[in-house]
Design brief:
By secondary structure, the chain is α/β, with parallel strands linked by helices. About 40% of the residues lie in helices and about 15% in strands. It has a seven-stranded parallel β-sheet with strand order 3-2-1-4-5-6-7, sandwiched between helices. Helix 2 packs parallel to helix 3. Bound molecules: NADP nicotinamide-adenine-dinucleotide phosphate (NAP). Keywords: Oxidoreductase.
Length: about 220
């Protein structure tokens, strides 16, 4: 299987990459620092906070799956929020997945592939202090829903994890001013296994949405 993946250097995306790599899949990873890419993967260097200069020529002829896992979060009340925080979250969490999907579409169509957007519980509901991140993730759900309507040959899934024990969750705790205990949250491997299951689903069916929460 040929898989294009963002966020493969950390957390959920890193676990997805590990599982796929171990079973012999071919990975194209979009990373902002080439030295962080696993040498077994094809590295595509791009900072997702910037306009994407990638073209179809950078990608394989056929792509069986795209997993959008890169993301960023800056908490803060609307009253105190800076424009640059809104912009970076919109760029990395929403605009980059949209543009990367667009570039990958010809290759995805050839393979009748699957696109998985790693969304968030914040893509379904909003808490105080989470507006900018939640707005980017609500937008990401709209992107997935629109893509599913427009590209009938593809399978498009949004997965909505609750708090997952990754560096991002550690940062969320620091921003909230609370103590971090990784044991309380979903293991990134658990979310990753679900993502792989979505990709591997027999081709007579698709899973539009999956909600996964800590017990
Ligand atoms: N952890 C949670 O509790 C949780 C819950 C729900 C949803 N999510 C979502 O799950 C996804 C994965 O999150 P995670 O927890 O695994 O986060 P993470 O451990 O912080 O990993 C984030 C990944 O995104 C990449 N990334 C960030 N900014 C980038 C940029 N400008 N250009 C290229 N790559 C960039 C990072 O690359 P570097 O290694 O170069 O920094 C890293 O690989 C995100 O979309 C997040 O919103 C997470």
């Amino acid at each position: 299987m040929k898989v294009l993946l963002t966020g493969a250097t950390s957390g959920i995306g890193q676990e997805v990459a590990r599982i796929l790599r171990e079973r012999g899949d071919e990975l194209w990873v979009v990373v902002r620092d080439a030295s962080r890419a696993d040498p077994r993967d094809h590295a595509i260097v791009a900072d997702l906070a910037e306009p994407l200069s990638l073209t179809v020529a950078d990608l394989p002829e056929e792509i069986d799956a795209v997993v959008h896992s890169a993301g960023t979060i800056t908490l803060g009340a609307i009253a105190d929020s800076a424009q640059e925080d809104w912009e970076s979250q919109f760029r990395i969490n929403l605009l980059a997945p949209a543009m990367l999907t667009r570039i990958a579409l010809p290759a995805l169509r050839r393979a009748q592939g699957t696109v998985v957007f790693v969304n968030s519980g914040a893509g379904l509901r909003v808490s105080a202090g989470w507006s900018a991140y939640a707005a980017s993730k609500h937008g990401l759900r709209a992107l997935a829903d629109g893509l599913r309507e427009e590209e009938k040959s593809l399978r498009v899934t949004s997965i909505f994890p609750g708090r997952t024990a990754t560096p991002m969750q550690e940062s969320v705790h620091a921003q909230e001013g609370s103590a971090y205990d990784a044991e309380r949250w979903i293991r990134p491997e658990t979310v990753a296994r679900k993502v792989v299951e979505i990709i591997d689903l027999p081709n007579d069916a698709l899973i539009p949405e999956v909600v996964i929460r800590p017990r």
